[in-house]
Each structure stands twice: as structure tokens, then as C-alpha cells.
Specification:
The complex is a heterodimer of chains A (274) and B (189).
Chain A: H1 6-22, H2 31-44, H3 50-59, H4 61-72, H5 82-96, E1 102-107, H6 113-124, E2 131-137, H7 140-148, E3 150-152, H8 156-166, E4 176-179, E5 182-185, E6 194-197, E7 209-213, H9 223-236, E8 237-244, E9 260-264, E10 269-272
Parallel strand pairs in A: 1-2, 1-7, 2-6, 7-8
Antiparallel strand pairs in A: 3-5, 4-5, 8-10, 9-10
Helix pairs in contact in A: 1-3, 2-4, 3-4, 5-8
Chain B: E1 6-11, H1 15-24, E2 33-38, H2 46-54, E3 61-63, E4 75-77, E5 83-87, E6 90-94, H3 106-117, E7 121-125, H4 134-142, E8 146-150, H5 159-166, E9 172-174, H6 176-188
Parallel strand pairs in B: 1-2, 1-7, 2-4, 3-4, 7-8, 8-9
Antiparallel strand pairs in B: 5-6
Helix pairs in contact in B: 1-6, 3-4
Classes of the chains: A alpha/beta (274), B alpha/beta (189).
């Protein structure tokens, strides 16, 4: 593309190279944020240009692994946005109770903060026995990490404050045991969960769900890709299934906006109606 | 002549009060949108900042949502606990790690603005108690944008504007009322 600035060209070529060599398609990720992440990897590799990063990624699969980790780790907390979890408890759980068995998909689960929050909520509401959570991520390594349920001890104060503001019924510290500088969450919380690698960009629908909770994952996608992933979610939701997004995400711009009714507009919780 | 399409503003300690003064006399119908990153607590209440500023400002004020169109004559705030990034014509959000303990980060906003709007961007550093914004203001300057800093003598905390000025990338050092005047001038071009 003539006139394209050099760095934009390098980024485009890097994303093309990753796609053609490894099959991971980041070409429709939001440019501003993927560029920052690529830059960070470039600096940590001690490289001067994105072209240099392209060479290393192509010839050194360990570098690709590191890059993939950069691209799949988000920095979130348990019970981030306590009012969201309260809305889930007050407005969605009553619907879920009417089903004999509940399937929930948590795509882009990253290191599992959201998945454990959900599992704690379900246990306190007495739904854990008949619910299965499917926690997936593009990166198999972080899925494995989520499954282990180990979190830095230093984060517990923040998680506990969020949990209290959510209005949890128990003592948050009952859910974990301390091992050195880490907290291990009660493995029974997610013993029935399915942890799997799944790529929202390229993989198909794999089940029918009553709730899809995907918060602050699609903010990394451009609008065209958001639209495709909303198609995937729509195909994966049962009739009257619930879609829960992040506070600052919207289905307004997608071609599936009309397929949903708001359950809580502020918390971005929707019910499939079409 | 360049038309300025995006003004990015950063501040921390005392920044909300300073921003309220800057936006108070901004003229409607200006050529630019204003995007703001103020350091704030992760759990700071959503509506409070918007209503504080809206009470002082004739331009519509809102928290940016993901992929919101960037429209001239509006003020957009980085939401608590997200980075606000700029793409050509749209905002994007991220929950990448805090940068220098801050999310939103001023550098993240400014650097992405420089990237997307180059010489059509203006960056303003207000009062604050650390050096967030230094990398970003350099980048805006490098891409041909206009760079302003609040006069540290008029700032509640002077560390942030002083750090910005020390980069050598600041075009003008001004008290708040003069910053508004310059913005109004740039917005008419």
C-alpha cells in the first residue's frame, strides 16, 4: 500500500508471517493494542524493529511461544466490576435455576480470574452441582495455568475487596490456601469444568450454552472480527441464552444487535431473543 | 493548514479540577475531539467524573466505550481500570498491564494518538505527581503534533508537567486559562 508508513507496513507483514507460518490469525486484531504488545515483545527480545521480530518469530518457535503468551495474558482481577457479578447473581441466576443442567462458556479465560469468580458465585448460589463451565483460551499454556488455580498472594487483598463489594456470602479466604507467595484456589470449585484450547478467530462452535461470559476479550479485536465472533457466540447460544460482555463493550456495532434483548444495559448482560 | 482533530489530555493529582477549568470555556463547534486520561482508582464510580465535568462544560462528555467513533466537539474520558487507545477515527480499550502503575496510562493514550493522528494531534499535560506522559508527549512532538504543559507554578502537583517540560518536547508552558485559549485557537483552524 503506497504511502503506508514503514512501521505500519512492518506490522502488517509480521502479522501475515505469523498467520502463514503458525496459523494464528491476528490480522484483525485492533491495531493500536496489538502494536503495543508487539513492541513490548520486540524490546524484551532486544530487537530494534518489527521486521527483526518477524525474523526471530519465524525462525525460533520459542519466541513465538513467548509472543503468544504476551497476546493471551490480560491483567484482570477476580470479581473485577463487582456490580457485574451482582447483576449476574440477581438477574441471570434465577433464569439458570430453571434449567436441569447449565452449560457456561468462558472464552478468553486467560489465567482464570473470571472463571474462578464465576465458580465461586455458582457455588454460593447452589448451582455448581448442575453446571459445567467450559473455560477456553487461544493459548494452551494459560489454560493450563488457569486450571492449576494458583495466583499471587499479593493479589488477594484486591480480590477480597472486590468479593466483599460483590456481596459474597462467605469469607473469601475460605476459597484458597496459601503456599509461600501464592494462593491455591479450592480445586473442587472447577473440578467439573472443561479447560480447552479454542481460538475464537478460527475455531467453530463446539456446544450449545446457556451463558457465554466473554468480558474484555473482544476489545482486542477490530470491528470486523468482533462481528464474526458475535456470529460464533450467537450460533453457540441456546434459545434465551445469556451473553455477558465487559462494561465498556457494546453489541451496538455488530450485525447481531437485534438478536438480543437487554437484561442489564449498564452491565452489558443480554438475552438471545432471535 | 493543519486541522487539529484530536486533543489528548493527561493528569493525575489535581487533574480533575484542572481539567474542569480547561474544558469550561472550550468553544462548541471546534475541529477536534478531546480524549482524557486521568489517573483514578480502579473502582472509582463511573458517573462521577462525567457529571462533574459535564456540569462545567458545554461540549458533551462521556466515558469512551470500545470502538466508539471519535467525533469532533466531544469530550471522552478513559474509563477506570482500562487503557484508552486511539485508532484512526475510533477508540479502542485494553486491559494490558498497568504502565508505571497506571491504568489508564497517559503514555498509552498519547503514543497511540501520535500514531493515529500525527500532526493533527495536540497533547496537554496537566498537574500530576509522577512522570507518566513523558514518552507520549515526545512521540506526539516527533509526529508533528502540538504539545502543551500546564505551568508547574500554577499546578497543584508540579512533578508531571515538570517531567514533561524536561523532555524538551513541550512547545508551550501555560497557565490553565491560556491552555484553553490556545485550544480554542487551534480548534478554529
Amino acid at each position: 500500500m503506497p504511502g503506508e508508513d514503514l512501521e505500519a507496513l512492518e506490522l502488517r507483514l509480521l502479522l501475515d508471517a505469523i498467520y502463514h507460518h503458525y496459523g494464528y490469525d491476528f490480522r484483525e486484531y485492533a491495531r493500536a493494542s496489538i502494536k503495543r504488545r508487539m513492541w513490548r515483545r520486540m524490546m524484551e527480545e532486544g530487537l530494534a524493529t518489527l521486521s527483526g521480530l518477524q525474523e526471530r518469530v519465524l525462525h525460533d518457535s520459542a519466541c513465538m511461544e513467548r509472543l503468544l503468551l504476551d497476546l493471551s495474558i490480560n491483567v484482570t482481577s477476580m470479581f473485577r466490576d463487582p456490580t457485574f457479578y451482582a447483576a449476574l447473581r440477581d438477574k441471570v441466576v434465577p433464569l439458570l435455576r430453571t434449567y436441569p443442567f447449565v452449560r457456561i462458556w468462558n472464552p478468553g479465560c486467560s489465567t482464570g480470574e473470571e472463571t474462578y469468580s464465576l465458580a465461586i458465585l455458582l457455588r454460593e448460589e447452589g448451582l455448581d452441582g448442575r453446571t459445567r463451565i467450559y473455560a477456553t483460551d487461544i493459548n494452551g499454556t494459560v489454560v493450563q495455568r488457569a486450571k492449576e488455580g494458583l495466583f499471587p498472594l499479593e493479589r488477594m487483598q484486591e480480590f477480597t475487596q472486590n468479593y466483599l463489594r460483590y456481596g459474597g456470602r462467605c469469607s473469601f479466604s475460605d476459597y484458597y490456601k496459601v503456599y509461600g507467595d501464592r494462593a491455591r484456589f479450592d480445586p473442587t470449585l472447577l473440578e467439573n469444568a472443561v479447560f480447552a484450547q479454542h481460538n475464537l478467530v478460527s475455531d467453530a462452535s463446539f456446544n450449545e450454552f446457556n451463558l457465554i461470559m466473554c468480558r474484555n476479550v473482544m476489545i482486542y479485536f477490530d470491528r470486523a472480527l468482533q462481528d464474526k465472533v458475535h456470529g460464533l457466540f450467537h450460533r453457540s447460544l441456546a434459545r434465551s441464552g445469556i451473553l455477558a460482555l465487559g462494561h465498556k463493550e457494546s453489541i451496538r456495532f455488530t450485525s447481531h444487535a437485534d438478536a438480543y434483548a437487554e437484561i442489564d444495559g449498564h452491565e452489558k448482560v443480554y438475552r438471545r431473543i432471535l | 493548514m493543519t486541522s487539529f482533530r484530536l486533543v489528548v489530555v493527561g493528569g493525575s493529582w489535581g487533574g480533575l479540577d484542572a481539567l474542569g477549568k480547561v474544558v469550561a470555556l472550550l468553544e462548541e463547534g471546534c475541529s477536534f475531539a478531546l480524549a482524557v486520561a486521568l489517573h483514578r482508582a480502579a473502582n472509582s464510580p463511573e458517573g462521577a467524573l462525567v457529571s462533574y465535568l459535564q456540569a462545567r462544560c458545554s461540549l458533551p462528555v462521556s466515558e469512551a466505550e470500545d470502538k466508539d467513533a471519535i467525533e469532533p466537539g466531544r469530550v471522552y474520558l478513559a474509563p477506570a481500570d482500562y487503557h484508552l487507545l486511539v485508532e484512526p477515527g475510533r477508540f479502542a480499550l485494553s486491559i494490558d498491564a498497568p504502565v508505571q502503575y497506571s491504568r489508564p496510562s497517559i503514555d498509552v493514550l498519547f503514543e497511540s494518538a501520535a500514531d493515529a493522528y500525527a500532526d493533527e494531534s495536540v497533547a496537554v499535560i496537566l498537574t500530576g505527581s509522577n512522570d507518566d506522559g513523558c514518552r507520549g508527549i515526545r512521540q506526539v512532538k516527533r509526529r508533528g503534533g502540538v504539545t502543551l504543559a500546564q505551568d508547574p507554578l500554577t499546578a497543584v502537583r508540579r512533578e508531571m508537567p515538570e517531567a514533561a517540560i524536561a523532555t524538551g518536547a513541550v512547545d508551550q508552558v501555560l497557565p490553565l486559562d491560556r491552555i484553553t485559549e490556545v485550544l480554542n485557537d487551534l480548534g478554529r483552524s
